[in-house]
Amino acid sequence: MAPMQEEDWIDYLEGDIDAEIKMERDLILSYSQTDHKILRDYQELRALLVKELTIEMPNDTYFDSLQNKIMSEIHFTAIEVDRKECEPQDHILPWRVPKEPWKLKLTQK
Amino acid sequence: MKEEWQIIADVLQGQTHRFGELVGKYQRDLLRMVMRLISNVELSEEIVQESFIKAFKKLHLFEGKASFRSWLYQIAINTAKNKFRECKKQVVSIDNVSIAVASNSDSLLQSLDLKTLLQSEVQLLPNKQRIALILRIFEDLSFKEISHIMGCPYDTAKANYRHALMKLRRRLMDHSHLTGWNEIETHQAPEFLGFLAEAKQ
Q1: Which residues make Cβ contacts (< 8 Å) with residue A41, sequence separation at least 6?
Q2: Fewer CB within 10 A of the end CB, N or C, for chain B?
Q3: CA of B21: which chain A residue's CA is closest?
Q4: What is the ipTM of this complex?
């Protein structure tokens, strides 16, 4: 069996492997101290990053104000609708159904 | 999700006020993500505002191939990159000075706590690796979503993430006095050797 690479253990940790491969790696972990240590290091690193690098977020008042700022600016903004972009296409989505999409352009106030 | 599509449809039909619901839903996540990229609250807020305005203007282009959140993150990251380029002279020079001093001085490093070490090491990562790391670990996005946001193949998104983690692990091992991490001796216990030989067959 080819030796495990660090990348393999990162994939294992992220759950990004097939069930069969996971079983093989579980077996390796049962006898390989080196691989066990590598996996543990990455588990700890992940936990450290989450624990130590928390971001202090502003309070609700800040976000109310931010939302108001954004919506005030949007009030004076038009959706940029290009007729060519709105031509019927096979993958049309519900909101593209309007037959006269150019009418969606809001007039600036 | 269905409700979100309805909001988008309503906005495109002229109900602009409904875009406020999307702002309310995603502004915290967006600000938090941007603040991890750019350690400046004022600039981060500017980027978040610009991102929502861009998202509104281009809402008709949202195809729903990925989630609205992913699309919004993509806009924010591109906006942040553009803003960073504009402010490069001010931001980069300050960061470079502080980081250069820390990395050249062993005695300074010893006094760094783990948090400071991790912060500086994450900032030192190449942009693509740092973005992939932030989106995976702090935003809990799948590699598929990350690849969409970064505009790269799935495997590239994964590779960027892996390289970021591997670099960080090596750097932390260099400062084992902070983490307690050491290289393990690689010899195996004798009772395992036979088992290993059988497994290889």
Answers
A1: B169, B173, B181
A2: C
A3: A67
A4: 0.74
